[in-house]
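During the no-cost extension, the postdoctoral fellow (Dr. R.K.) reprocessed legacy sequence entries with the updated structure-token encoder. One reprocessed record is reproduced below for audit purposes.
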Amino acid sequence: IRIKHDSALSEGTAMRVGKPHHLVPCKSNINTLRRNAPFGEILDDKTKYWILDDKVFIRPDKRFLDNYSESTSGFFEPREDKKGDIARSLFYFFTVYGQNITKKNRSFFTPCFSNSIIGIGPIK
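Re-encoded structure tokens follow.
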């Protein structure tokens, strides 16, 4: 397991360096698969890789689609129960540090906020 920032440096968030509240645990093989792809919504029929824990699949178990993260060459979609946490973290960063939300990341925010239940307690 590695510790990574929740957003890619290529997404205009270089100021977050040294800000530990944006660090999250990440499996190294999944981080390699994601590369610097921004977060986004991916249609299920366009998903190239389905990720469950630290395993990568080409065909998911359709009964548990919400448990998978999804990946294409251009975007990475976190599993459903983590989207709200990630969106709030990024939104906070963009707001507090005056960074602009990139066009690629903008599509990630609206569905995450509208469908997310705000959890009580720390981000897990």
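The mean pLDDT is 77. The CA atoms of residues 15 and 98 lie 10 Å apart. The remaining legacy entries will be reprocessed before the final report is submitted.
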